[in-house]
Amino acid sequence: MANIHKTAIIGEGAVLGKNVEIGPYSIIGSEVVIGDNTIIESHVVIDGITIIGKNNKIYSYASIGKESQDLKYKGEPTKTIIGDNNKIREFVTIHRGTDDKWETVIGNNNLLMVYVHVAHDVIVGDNCILANNVTLAGHVTVGDFAIIGGLTPVHQFCNIGAHSMTGGGSLIVQDVPPYILAEGSRAVARGLNSVGLSRRGFSKEDLSILKKVYRLIFRSKMLLKDALAEIEETYGENEYVKNFVEFIKNSSRGIIK
After folding, report:
1. Please, which residues bridge with residue 166 across strands?
2. Are strands 32-34 and 57-58 parallel, antiparallel or unpaired?
3. Any stretches that span the bilayer, and where are they (predicted)?
């Protein structure tokens, strides 16, 4: 049975899993689905077609599933989808998708700190940390294990690569490739995220290869297309290098330098 405070408002049709807790004055819309063992603290608003998985904790004053701030949005039946084992802290806002992707998605095991904003059609992978006041504009994608420092705005349509880390207060207007450190008032590449990669079990051999790849892309005077060609010829069998090269080739906004 769900544990619902007497002051909470649960819309007719909402589906609550086993052992769900709903705190005082929270409002759950009629099209919301909440998985087992998820805790909703006080004064939380969850609206729209929103599907939330198991074992999440959503703290006070969060707003999830409201319509986007995109002026082109005309009330289409878009979704907000949140996986399992996430912590969504106070005053976080997560907006539903538009008719671009039709959904905004948060994966599993993520920490969204105070005042994080996740705009429409954003995709956040698994095991990410978004520090206080991170602002993800519409259509942003964040790869698995990425860490975004506090007070960081990310421009529309940017991609943040897996296992990357960005410093606090960095303005991100282009794609951040996987595995690197980025920082600056307009973010630039500062090096390989060696400490983070080591903690996640990357071998010394893989780290050595990725450092060489990083230098070719960011520190050599080669044209990007020539650097990529050399990387593919020399290190192209390495799975992490494949991911790195594919990310850069698929970048529509260009990568930070």
Report:
1. 148, 182
2. unpaired
3. none
